[in-house]
Amino acid sequence: MNCIAGSSTKATATTIPARAAAGRNTRSVAGRSNPPERFPRQTSAAESARVGAAKPEIDSQHHGLVACRINIQIRQARLSDAAVIAEFNLRLARETEQLQLDAEVVRQGVAAVLGDEHKGRYYVAVVNGTIVGQLMITYEWSDWRNGNLWWLQSVFVKEEFRGQGVFRALFEHLVTLARSSDNVAGLRLYMHADNATARQTYERLGMSHSHYEVFERDFVLDRKKGTQP
Question: What is the pLDDT confidence band of residue 93, given thresholds at 50, 70 and 90?
């Protein structure tokens, strides 16, 4: 029997757009990243989320051929993952914003997060021992809610694994962690306003459009472009 590449982990797969779902997510929201007071219990490797099963199934959309489900393991990133995460971030910037970031600065930025959970946390999706997707969370303390808002950033899925439920698995794992913590008030992200595919993806996952807009002054990238006053 033949297995079809690019098949879904679920019957209703979430499509990850060619532009990574979070749009302009390579940067933090300036002045809005504060460490949480407490972290939810970290899952062990044995407890990490696993989605799908490594077994074939009949897919009527492919004329009765057999489509292979993939096994996706979600875990918190480790310092040894830094090189892969940095490369994903560089690719994300090129793909979504046509930006050529300074590779050394990105490597240092990734290592800083992996070495200090007060800055944020990365989670990675692993298939057959290989990292195929990632996202990062940073924190914003909400005095209105007396809790942290987790901002989803640096979302990236390798092109050959898009449309197979990788982002859905990452997102659902994050929701589970957030709900298990008594000081997480909600999840937020920002994206390009014209990214209709990403918008549909987030709405299918239960997120809603807010009335807020993001304003920024980017001292690092503006300096690189020579546009900083």
Answer: very high
> 74 forms bridges with which residues in the sheet?
49, 125
198 pLDDT band, cuts 50/70/90, is confident
Tally of structural domains, the chain? 1
Residue 140's domain comprises 11-52+71-209
**What is the CATH classification number for the domain harbouring 87?**
3.40.630.30
Q: pLDDT per residue over 139-181, tens digit each?
A: 999 999 999 999 999 999 999 999 999 999 999 999 999 999 9
Per-residue H/E/C for the chain: CCEECCCCCCCCCCCCCCCCCCCCCCCCCCCCCCCCCCCCCCCCCCCCEEECCCCEEECHHHCCCEEECCCEEEEECCHHHHHHHHHHHHHHHHHHHCCCCCHHHHHHHHHHHHHCCCCCEEEEEEECCEEEEEEEEEEEEECCCCEEEEEEEEEEECHHHCCCCHHHHHHHHHHHHHHHCCCEEEEECCCCCCCHHHHHHHHHCCCCCCCCCCCCCCHHHHHHHCCCC
